[in-house]
Amino acid sequence: MTLDWPELDLTRLSGAGGGDGFGALASSQNFDVALACSGPRLLQFAECDVSQTLVEPAASFSSLLDKAVELRAGIMVPVLEDDCLEVLACMLDVKHDIIRAIGAFLNEAERRRADGLKSERDRRRFIVSRGQLRQILACRLGISPSDVELEYGKLGKPRLSHRMPSRDLRFSVSRSGDMAVVALSTGQEVGVDIEAILPVPEADEIAALCFSASDYESYAALGPDERVEGFFRRWTRLEAISKGLGCGLGYLSSSDDKDWVARSFVPKTGYLGSVVIRK
Question: What's residue 68's pLDDT?
Answer without folding.
Answer: 53
